[in-house]
Amino acid sequence: MALAKLKVETTDARLSGVVVPDGAAWSNAVRADALSRVRQMGLPTKRDEYWKYTDPASLTTAEPSSAALFVNDEGPLFEAVDRVRIVFVDGVFDAGASDDLTAEGVEIERLADAIQTDIHWAKDLYGVLETRGQTPVERPLAALNTALATDGVVIRVTGKAAKPINFIYLHKDENSDAMLHNVVKVEAGAEVTILETGPAAARFSKMLEVEVADGATFHHVRAQGRDHERRAVTHCFARIGANATFKSFTLTFNGVLTRNECILEIVGDDSVAHVAGACVGDGKDFHHDDTVFVTHDSLNCESRQVFKKVLRNGATGVFQGKILVKAGAQKTDGYQISQSLLLDEDSQFLAKPELEIYADDVACSHGSTSGAIDETALFYLRSRGVPHDEARNLLTLSFLAESLEEIDDAGLAEELRDRLEAWLARHS
Amino acid sequence: MLEIKGLKVKLEEEDKQILKGVDLKIEPGTVHAIMGPNGSGKSTLSYVLSGKDGYVVTDGEATLEGADLLDMDPEDRAAAGLFLAFQYPVEIPGVGNMTFLRTAVNAQRKSRGEVELTAGEFLKEVREKAKSLQIDAEMLKRPVNVGFSGGEKKRNEILQMAMLAPKMCILDETDSGLDVDAMKLVAEGVNALRSEGRSFLVITHYQRLLDHIKPDVVHIMADGRIIKSGGPELALEVENNGYADILAEVA
Fold first, then answer.
1. What pLDDT does residue A332 have?
2. Residues of A in contact with B78 (CB under 8 A)
3. Looking at chain B, which residue has its C-alpha nearest residue A397?
4. Of B99, B89, B94, B201, which Cα lies nearest the Cα of B140?
5. Mapped to the 3 state alphabet, what secondary structure does B16-27 carry?
6. pLDDT given at position B251
7. Interface with chain B: mutation pick from A337, A375, A379, A384, highest number of B CBs within 10 Å
8. pLDDT at A323
9. Which of A289, A291, B117, B166 has the fewest CB atoms nearer than 10 Å to its CB?
C-alpha cells in the first residue's frame, strides 16, 4: 500500500541531504538496510495509531526546534558513586571529560571505532535487535537512528562489572540535534549496571540495544534531564535469555516532548524483566509518553511494568503498554500498572494498556488509574502540623514510591528520591 | 484550655445540621470524656475542631487558650497545640514513619519559631518514646501505618502525640478495634502524657477505656448537643443502663 502523502513528504524532508556515517562493510550494510526500511515505513505522523496520543512532528522535522539551556544549582547525579563516566556533549563523545573507558569485567569501545572494524561482535546486535523489534509494531524512528546515529559506545560485559557505567549527556548548544546509539552485550553469567543522566540536546534520539545472555543481569537506571524545552525519543530493545534479569528504571523531569519506547523480548526460561518509570511534569508544554512492549516467548518468566506520572498545570502523560504472551509461553507471570496523579483538572493522562495472550496457563494482570491527592491523607498530615504544600509533596512521593522501589540499589533510589523531593519543593 | 461556645455545624455537601449548639469548657490538666450514641456528632466535633474540610460552622466559636481555632488551617491548629488521634489512622505507602514524624515535629517547631531538631536529637527522642509504647525500630522504619495491626496503628498515634507534645489532645474512639491488652498499652501511653499543662478530650462509646484513662468530667452527647455532664459515675451509669434513661430524662 502506498504511504500517505503527509508521511512521504515528512520522510523525504527529513532524509534530504542526510549523511550516513561510513564504516566497515557490515556497518554500511546495516545502515543502508535501516535507511531503506525508513523509506519503506515512512516516518510517523500524528495519524498513526501508535502516535495517537503523541504528535511526532517535532521529532521528524529536518531541523530541530531550539531548546534553552536549563540552569539551576543542583549538582550532577551519582557524584558519590564510583563509576565509569562516559560523557557526550550535545551527542558528541568528549574524551577529555570522560574517564578511561576501562573497568574490570567490561570492554568499552566507541561506536565510531567499532563500525570501522571488519569483524566485530557488535555486528550481531547493532540494528539487529532494533529490526526484530519492528514487528508487530513499526518503529521508524528507531530505524532512522540505526541508519544515522553518529556516536555512542558498544560495551561487552564479560564478568561482574567492577563499577557502573554512567552515560552522561550534557546539553550546551541550544540548537543541537543528537543521535546516539549504544549497544550492550551482557555475556552469560555477567552483570552490569548502566546509568544514564542528563538532558542531552535540544533534540535527542537515543537507542540502547541490550543482549542479556543466560544467567546474566542487567540493571539500568536513567534520569532524563530537566531542560524544559528539550525533545527526546528513546528506544531500548532488549533480548533476554534464560535465568536472566533485566531491570530498567527511568525518572523524567520536565521536557516539551519525551517518548520512551522499551521493547523487551524474553526468549529464555525462568527470567525476570522489569521496566518502570516515574515522571513529574508541570505546565501545558509538558508531554511525556511511555510506550512499552513486552513479549514472552519462553517458560516461567516474570515481567513487570510499573509507571507513575505526576502531572500538574495542564501537563500530559501517555502510557501505551502491552504484554504479548506467545503460544507455549506457559507459566508466564505478567504485571502492568500505569497510574497518574493529576494535581489539577487541566492535566491529563492517556493510557492504552493491552494484553494479548496465546498460552492457557498464565497469570497476567494490568491496571490503570488516574486520581487526585487523597484528601483524607492530606488532612491527616496537616493535622500533624505539616503545611499544605509539604503534605501534598509527601503524598506525591508516596504515590511515586512503588516505581522507585523497582530500583534494586537503595543508594541510587535514595538519590533520585531526593531529586524528586527537590523538584516538588521548587514547583510548590 | 479549650472553650467551645454554642457551636453549630452543618455538612458542606448537604443541608444537614450535625452540631446544634455545643458548649464545652476544658480546664488545663483535666481529662474530659464525651460519650454518646452513634450519630450524635462526637466525631464531627473532633473533625471540626481539628479543621477537616466538609463542614460549615454556622454559629458559635471554639478557642484554644483564647486563640480562635476555627479561623486557622489544620497545620496552624496543630502548631498551636491541638492534636487529634484518629479513629482510623491513615496509611501512607512510601513515606517512612520516621520521615513523617520528623517532618511533622520540625514543621511545628518552625511554625512556632523554635529551632528544628537535628537528626540525632530527633532519633534519641523518638527511640525513647517508642520504647515505652513497645514500638520497635522495624515499625519506625516502615511506611506510615502500612501493614500495621489495629493496635499498632493506635500506638503509633500515641507516639505521634508524645513526639508533638500538644496541649490539647482529642482522642477519637481510640479504643475501637483494640483488644484489652492493646487498649491497656494505649491507655498507659496516654496516662504517661497527662500533666498539669495538658488536657484531653476522650471520645468513646464505652466505659471500658475510661477504666484506664480516668476522666475528671464525663459528657453525654446526643443529637448534636451535650445533654448531660457529670463525674466518672456518669460513664458507669451509661455502661449499666445504656443511653435510654438519660435521653428520656432530658427529653
1. 98
2. 382-385
3. B94
4. B99
5. CEEEEEEEEEEC
6. 64
7. A384
8. 97
9. B117
Q: Pick A385's closest partner by Cβ from B90, B95, B111.
A: B111
Q: Which of B86, B208, B100 is nearest to B157 (CA)?
A: B86
pLDDT digits (tens, 9 = 90+) for A146-184: 999 999 999 999 999 999 999 999 999 999 999 999 999
Domain range enclosing B29: 2-250
Supply B215's cell numbers.
476522666
DSSP string across A10-25:
HHHHHHTT--PPP-SH
What are the extents of the domains in chain A? 5-372
What is the per-residue pLDDT for A1? 63
C-alpha cell at A3: 504511504
> pLDDT value at position A386?
95
- Dist. CA B233–CA B113, nearest whole Å: 43
Identity of the amino acid at A198: G
Does residue A294 carry a pLDDT above 90?
yes
Query: Among partner residues A374, A388, A398, which is closest to B73 by beta-carbon distance?
Result: A388
- Chain A CB within 8 Å of residue B96 CB: no
Closest among B73, B68, B78, B56 to B167, alpha carbons compared: B78
CB B169 within 8 A of CB B199: yes
Q: What is the reported pLDDT for B177? A: 81
Q: What is the pLDDT of residues A72-91, one digit of tens each?
A: 778 899 999 999 999 999 99
pTM listed for this prediction: 0.91
For the ranges A130-144, A283-297, B58-72, B136-150, which has the lowest average pLDDT? Answer: B136-150
Cα of first residue to Cα of last residue in chain B, in angstroms, is 31
Q: How far apart are the first and last CA of chain A?
A: 51
CATH of residue B92's domain is 3.40.50.300
Q: Is B104 within 8 Å of A386 when comparing Cβ atoms?
A: yes
What interface predicted TM-score (ipTM) does this complex get?
Answer: 0.95
| Residues in chain B closer than 8 A to A401 (CB atoms) | 93-95, 143
Tell me the shortest Cα–Cα distance from A84 to chain B, in angstroms.
31
Domain count across chain B: 1
